[in-house]
Structures are given as C-alpha cells and as structure tokens.
Amino acid sequence: MRLEMNDSSDEFIDIFYRGKSVQPINYTSDEDELGPEGNLVDFSYNEFSCSHLDMNVESQGEEWRPIQKTEIQSTVTEHEHTQDAELLVGNIDCNDPFELYKLFATDSILQLMVEETNKYSIQCGFSANRRKHELSWEPITISQMKVFIAILLIMGIIQMSDIRLYWYEKKMCGNERIKNVMKRNSFLAILKCIHFCDNTTSETEDPLNKISKIVTEIISTFKNTLKPGKTVVIDESMIPWRGRLRFRQYIKGKRHKYGIKVYKLCLPSGYTI
Hints:
The protein has 273 residues and is α+β, with helices and mostly antiparallel strands. The protein has helices at 44-60, 69-75, 97-104, 107-124, 142-157, 176-181, 184-193, 212-225; strands at residues 17-18, 21-22, 33-34, 40-41, 86-87, 226-227, 233-240, 249-250, 258-266. It is built from 8 helices and 9 strands. The protein has a 3-stranded antiparallel sheet with strand order 7-9-8, with no helix packed on it. The chain has a two-stranded antiparallel ribbon with strand order 1-2. Strand 8 (249-250) and strand 9 (258-266) form a beta hairpin. Helix 4 packs antiparallel against helix 8. The longest helix has 18 residues, at 107-124.
C-alpha cells in the first residue's frame, strides 16, 4: 500500500506496508538537511525524544544522578520460599519416633475416626448379634482407637498368614503384646466398622468420599507442622492395591504394578507436604 499526501509545503508521506512490518515515516521538506553522503537526516524523532525526557525530569523536580548498588539491595526483600525449611512445632525431640508420630496422629483425627466408626456400627445393625465378635461391641473411645492403630503397626512389621494367629494361645504363633492390650473379638469388631465419613451425608459422586474428611485433616496437619524451604520436589508414588477400585492403575515398569498412583509434593529429605 502506498499513500501520498501533498500540501502547500510540498510535504509527502510514504508508507510501505509489507506483511506485518511497517516502514518508518519520512518527512521531506525544504528545511531538511543532507548528511555527508547526501542522505536525508531526520531530527524530528530525536528532538521529540529529548524534549519528552526534559519534561519528565522537570515534572519530577529531581536531577539525574547515578543509583548506588546499596540502594538497589535495600529495596530487594527476600521471598519466604528462598529460605530453608523450618519446623513450626517447638519443644520436640526429632530423634524420638513416638514424638514424631504424635505430631500427625492428632486428637482431631482420632476423634473423627471414633465418631464415624461408632455411627457406622449403628448403621450396620450390630444389635442383631449376627456373629460372635459382634456380641462384644461397645462404643469405642480415643484410647481404644490408639490401641487399635498400634496393633495395625505391629501387624505390618510381624506378618502372619491369618489375622487370628496373633491371639493364638501357643507362644509359637501368638503375640503376647497384642493379646495383653485388646481381645480378638474387639479388634475384629473395630476392623469391620472402621469408618471415616458418614454414609448418609457423603457425596457419592466423589470417588474419594469415603476418606475425603480424614485426607483433608492429614494434609492440614502436614502443612502446619513444617514450612517448606526453597527446594521442593514433585514426586509420584504407587500405593499397592489389587482390590476393586475404578481408578486403580496398572504400570508395567513399577515394582508394584497394580495400585493407586498419587502425586506428592516433597522436600529433598523425603518429607511430604
């Protein structure tokens, strides 16, 4: 596209449009000056730029001066995530496993488990006394829930082919510590009714509705325990599971090929946020 505009001063404007690039506008008149090689020299842009800078300086009322390095450093604030990780809980022995366990197995989490388990026992109709271990059912307390979790931890370390063998009378198979803290029927009753949500009010559309409440509590506990530092790692982990689950995955290259794939935000030390 070529546009020409003539007036009394014989000025004309040439604009060349090629694709997306626009050529600069050239003003020619009798007042233009020629450079040493006969080329036109345009002072209009330089004069405008200088006058514009002068106006800005005058409007600010300050003179131009070099900026010192110390002035720049004083205005830069260190972001909170450029620091190292910080433990938000004081007066704790990090070398004591039981102290660390109590940081995450809080009373609010245990209370949630106790309330929902007692609700589900009523919904299951334990009053019908259909099985032997259901005869000894009584509403559980937080202390009983702590004992139940402790037994599960022992069972994870000392594994047997049948869960009833832990209460076996002979010392060859039985576990004396487990037998002394809880009866077998009481443990089986809690194991049958362990629950983390109210079935009457939970959202069935959510695939994690059975554990959504306790997962929220656990994530909140992890966030309130430690403040992440400048280095964080995004990692994935496979929770082994071969049962019926609609979001169960199969990954051939994993050690546990069937399970639940989760993404974790971790610190270099392995702490999960």
